[in-house]
Design brief:
Belongs to the universal stress protein A family. By secondary structure, this protein is an alpha/beta fold. The chain is built from 10 helices and 12 strands. The chain is 42% helix and 23% strand. Strand 4, helix 4 and strand 5 form a beta-alpha-beta unit.
């Protein structure tokens, strides 16, 4: 079954940027584009906003206008549209399940950390079983043709980051881009308070060579599967979130893995994905673990 590239729209500037991004990605991958808008009838007593049929007609007209612009830019692209009745989160999660990826708009970064992705986007990212790409308003398509890299975070053993690495290599292959695979590491607590131990570790080969070997091992099957994709192996001491964000300015896309954590107040994504979504200026792909 051919999975489409799906964009979730709501008429906002951010969602239209996500739609434009999804259309370009569909063209690159040779896939159809599906445009989805979740809609729920909302009557208001104080203001005449039309009956159910009228509201739905307005929604469809706005959606058709957005899609018309995309079709004019990409005349050979197969595009389908769906106005789906229901709550936004549930509708988009279902749409993501049938997609190669789901593109959503993001409000961008600002002074109030924690309120930038939006509650709908945050929940969709947490629940979706397929990759979700967050695109900011004003996203510049020229960055995709400027030789910028696909940056992907790798951690743990080869299996831990397999899904994120696969997505990064597939995207780079479609774009003719370089993959920069980033592995961050920190000292175990036992070494943190012993400066002399750093010298001993270096004499013994050190922790960094171990981290480099781990990254190379994780990349090996993807290098073999995508021999035409250039790869930069980036190993750096520091927190994973900070290291990834330090190289994000050179990226056309930042790819992070996601393992949702269930808590008493609901599901939460990991700190690395959370930091990337709130602070990276390029589109961010959040890929659930296999």
């Amino acid at each position: 079954m051919t999975r489409p590239i799906t964009a979730g729209v709501d008429g906002s500037e951010e969602s239209l940027a996500a739609l434009a991004w999804a259309a370009r990605e569909a063209v690159r991958r040779g896939l159809p584009l599906r445009v989805v808008q979740a809609w729920r009838y909302q009557p208001y007593e104080a203001v005449d906003v039309g009956d159910r049929d009228t509201q739905e007609r307005w929604v469809r007209q706005a959606l058709d206008g957005a899609v018309r612009t995309v079709a004019e830019r990409h005349p050979g692209l197969e595009v389908s549209t769906d106005v789906l009745a229901g709550a936004a989160v549930e509708t988009l999660v279902t749409a993501a399940g049938d997609a190669e990826l789901l593109a959503l708009g993001s409000r961008g970064h600002g002074p109030v950390v924690g309120f930038l992705v939006g509650s709908v986007g945050q929940q969709v990212i947490t629940e979706a079983t397929r990759p979700v790409v967050l695109v900011r308003a004003g996203d510049d398509p020229a960055a995709e043709a400027a030789g910028r890299e696909i940056v992907v975070g790798q951690h743990g053993d080869a299996e831990d980051s397999a899904a994120a690495l696969r997505f990064a290599f597939e995207t780079a292959a479609a774009r003719g881009a370089t993959v920069r695979a980033v592995r961050a590491w920190t000292l175990p607590p036992v070494f943190a308070y012993s400066p002399g131990s750093l010298h001993l570790l270096d004499e013994a080969g050190g922790l960094e060579p171990y981290e480099r070997r781990a990254l190379a091992e994780a990349l090996k099957p993807w290098r073999e599967r995508f021999p035409g994709v250039p790869v930069v192996e980036h190993v750096e001491m520091g927190s994973a979130g900070q290291v990834l964000l330090s190289v994000a300015p050179r990226a056309q896309l930042l790819v992070v893995g996601r393992r949702a954590h269930r808590t008493a107040v609901g599901a939460r994504i990991g700190s690395v994905a959370h930091g990337a979504l709130h602070h990276a200026t390029c589109p961010v792909a959040v890929v659930p673990h296999d």
